[in-house]
Design goal:
Shape of chain A: globular
Radius of gyration of chain A: 15 Å
GO cellular component, one term (chain B): U4 snRNP
Helix content of chain B: 55-70%
Helix content of chain A: 25-40%
InterPro entries (chain B): Nop_C (IPR042239), Nop_dom (IPR002687), Nop_dom_sf (IPR036070), NOSIC (IPR012976), Prp31 (IPR027105), Prp31_C (IPR019175)
Radius of gyration of chain B: 37 Å
Strand content of chain B: under 5%
Oligomer: heterodimer
Structural class of chain B: mainly alpha
Strand content of chain A: 15-25%
Largest sheet of chain A: 6 strands, mixed
Organism (chain B): Salvia splendens (Scarlet sage)
Largest interface: A-B, 16 and 11 residues
Order of helices and strands of chain A: EHEHEHEEEH
Number of helices of chain B: 21
Largest sheet of chain B: 2 strands, antiparallel
Strand order of the largest sheet of chain B: 1-2
Family (chain B): Belongs to the PRP31 family.
Structural class of chain A: alpha/beta
Pfam families (chain B): Nop, Prp31_C
Distance between the termini of chain B: 98 Å
Number of strands of chain A: 6
């Protein structure tokens, strides 16, 4: 699915993307474009990109590239596909029921599942001191 | 000259309200102040219209008497009526052939000179048997007409306009006459076929059907094709087979048939008048007829009572001109039209899809009012304003029919970025009151310092009661306040009245002894809500809330 979603092959690309995404959740999918599970995940991602475009950026990272191996080691990515969430260059951790809180392994069953996860990231990111977005959950 | 021609000439000349005939009629019938009406009476139903009315009264009197008297009176009256009718017929014939000729001969010299100068009457397309004399007049009149139209004189002074106004008033009067005659026919035919009046509503159709059926008891021998829609024919035949009517006596039948003839003649006269007006409508009101068409324009000008009267009306009234007020009891109201009058018959209205008809009607009414106003001041004799308005109307209606723009998929909003719209106001407060925390619950939630609370299971188990029921709580008695939620639910169930309603006391009975009707059964649940009893004493009312200060 490289032609549908931006695919990153160089370390510098990944770095710049992480740094430059402001006030939006950055979703990085580490995986192979030929893997069946990856394909399914990519499909879900592609379908939801339009809907969540206001607060999410999605990018695919090819794990076969050499420069990317650094990241695989850093994030300890062994299973493919894995998704790592960032918010304002900060790595977001998430309890998804498994032991590993740093990333999301595997695919999403439905588009709505992905949207829920990402919305929650956004809410938490906004709540934290990382950003200064307006919050209407407070009583006025 | 054919009788058709006579009819028109006499009609139109009658309308002019000058000449011998009116004066004669005025003297003989003091009950009809309207000279035009009296003229048409003279021709159409004879000057014995007064006697027709008298016969109605006589019939009414008869109804309340005994049957014997009825028969006798009927016979007597029948004789009189026959004489009268004969007299009528004789008069009519006399009028038709003798008096009409003489009158029209009189008029010919007088009227046609008038017409020569300003009238356009003879330009009727109905002059089949026009003589050379008339043809010359026609051409002259047309020439005069075209000259006059370029002057741009005030509309009211135009003699042709006067004629049109009179024609309009005449058509309205004819319509009223038709209604009266219809009532007469109906009353007479009721003995024979009472159900027919509820099946066939239109007076002219009724008259035609009555004439066709006459005294026939077996409707299979009567061919009603072309008079009524086939569904109605079927219903009529079926009802006729089980009708409770009896054949009419010969004289009554004759009266009825004559009345039918009169009604039909009146109807055809009205059509002719309207056709004439319609043909001249392009001259009188070009803008209005450009929008709604000449037939409808003629009708609404007639109903409004003139072009200036129409121009003074607000558009909402114009929309309702000619609206049928009759509610067809017995027929389903599924076909009851919304409030549209003659505008319903315009081409624009008929060609709009039914869902847009209400809007189209309002638009049509407003634009045609504008056009009528332009016409009343002769501001645009060429009719250009009317055509522009019509184009505007078409454009608007087309725009309404456009499909809505395609829906763009919108991205989801950022979570928690949109403020929740908080509502306020009395309604919301009242709604929230139903779910508010009651005093009992408030007391139960609190505890006093140092005093252990009671609990439902005792010894600290179960639900705690807090300050409820404690000695030093400062409240003498805490009662279960009438919760509004409970009241509302109780009321809802009461309306449904499952089984026996427990609210009526056991001592009330549904039987009541009334002086007039004796024993009367009354529904105990009939007037419980919304009756004259106020909610103060109502069983499901709540305690009034006294605000704590």
């Amino acid at each position: 699915m490289e032609y549908l979603l931006p695919t990153l092959r160089k370390k510098q690309e990944v770095d710049s993307l992480i740094r430059d995404t402001l006030d939006k959740v950055l979703v990085l999918r580490f995986g192979l474009s030929s893997d069946a599970v990856c394909l399914q995940l990519d499909d879900v991602l592609y379908k939801s990109v339009k809907d969540v475009s206001k607060f999410v950026t999605v990018a695919l990272v090819d794990t076969t590239e050499e420069e990317i191996q650094v990241y695989l080691k850093y994030f300890d990515i062994t299973y493919v596909p894995s998704i790592v969430f960032f918010f304002n260059a900060h790595h977001m951790k998430m309890d998804s029921g498994s032991a590993d809180h740093t990333k999301w392994v595997g695919t999403f069953q439905r588009k709505q599942d992905f949207v829920d996860v990402v919305e929650e990231h956004m809410v938490q990111g906004c709540k934290s001191s990382l950003c200064n977005c307006r919050r209407y959950t407070e009583r006025q | 000259m054919g009788t058709g021609m006579e009819l028109i000439i006499f009609l139109v000349s009658a309308v002019k309200s000058t000449g011998l005939s009116n004066r004669v009629v005025k003297e003989s019938i003091p009950t009809f102040p309207n000279p035009m009406l009296s003229c048409i009476m003279l021709w159409a139903s004879g000057y014995s219209e007064a006697t027709l009315n008298d016969s109605f009264l006589a019939d009414l009197d008869e109804l309340s008497d005994n049957e014997d008297d009825l028969l006798e009176a009927d016979n007597d009256d029948a004789e009189h009526m026959e004489e009268d009718i004969d007299g009528d017929l004789a008069d009519i014939e006399a009028l038709n052939y003798d008096d009409l000729d003489s009158v029209s001969k009189l008029q010919k010299t007088q009227r046609f000179t008038d017409i020569m100068q300003g009238g356009f009457v003879v330009a009727l397309p109905l002059s089949y048997s026009a003589t050379d004399f008339l043809v010359l007049k026609v051409e002259d009149a047309l020439e005069n007409g075209s000259e006059n139209s370029t002057h741009g004189i005030v509309l009211e002074d135009d003699p042709e306009y006067q004629l049109i106004v009179d024609c309009n008033a005449l058509s309205v009067d004819i319509e009223n006459e038709i209604v009266i005659i219809h009532n007469f026919i109906r009353d007479k035919y009721r003995l024979k076929f009472p159900e027919l009046e509820s099946l066939v509503h239109h007076p002219i159709d009724y008259a035609r059907v009555v004439k066709k059926i006459a005294n026939e008891m077996d409707l299979t021998l009567v061919d009603l094709e072309g008079f009524l829609p086939s569904a109605i024919i079927m219903v009529v035949s079926v009802t006729a087979s089980t009708t409770s009517g009896k054949p009419l006596p010969e004289d009554v039948l004759q009266k009825t048939i004559d009345a039918c003839d009169r009604a039909l003649a009146l109807d055809s006269a009205k059509k002719k008048v309207l056709d004439f007006v319609e043909s001249r409508m392009g001259y009188i009101a070009p803008n209005l007829s450009a929008i709604v068409g000449s037939a409808v324009a003629a009708k609404i000008i007639g109903t409004a009572g003139g072009l200036s009267a129409l121009a003074k009306m607000p558009a909402c009234n114009v929309q309702l001109l000619g609206a049928k007020k009759k509610n067809l009891a017995g027929f389903s109201t599924a076909t009851s039209q919304f409030r549209v009058g003659y505008l319903e018959q315009t081409e624009i209205f008929q060609s709009t899809p039914p869902s847009l008809r209400m809007r189209a009607c309002r638009l049509l009414a407003s634009k045609s009012t504008l056009a009528a106003r332009v016409d009343s001041t002769r501001g645009d004799p060429a009719g250009k304003t009317g055509r522009t308005l019509r184009a505007e109307i078409h454009k608007k209606i087309e725009k309404w029919q456009e499909p809505p723009p395609a829906k763009q998929p919108k991205p989801l909003p950022v979570p928690d970025s949109e403020p929740r719209k908080k509502r306020g106001g009395r309604r919301l407060r009242k709604m929230k009151e139903r779910y508010a925390i009651t005093d009992m619950r408030k007391l139960a939630n609190r505890m006093q310092f140092g005093i252990p609370e009671e609990s439902s299971l005792g010894d600290g188990l179960g639900e705690g009661y807090g300050m409820l029921g404690q000695a030093g709580s400062g409240k003498l008695r805490v009662s279960v306040g009438q919760s509004k939620l409970a009241a509302k639910v109780a009321k809802k169930f009461k309306d449904r009245s499952y089984g026996t309603s427990g609210a009526t006391s056991g001592l009330t009975s549904s039987l009541a002894f009334t002086p007039v009707q004796g024993i009367e059964l009354s529904n105990p649940q009939a007037n419980q809500f919304g009756g004259t009893q106020s909610t103060y004493f109502s069983e499901t009312g709540t305690f009034s809330k006294i605000k704590r200060t």
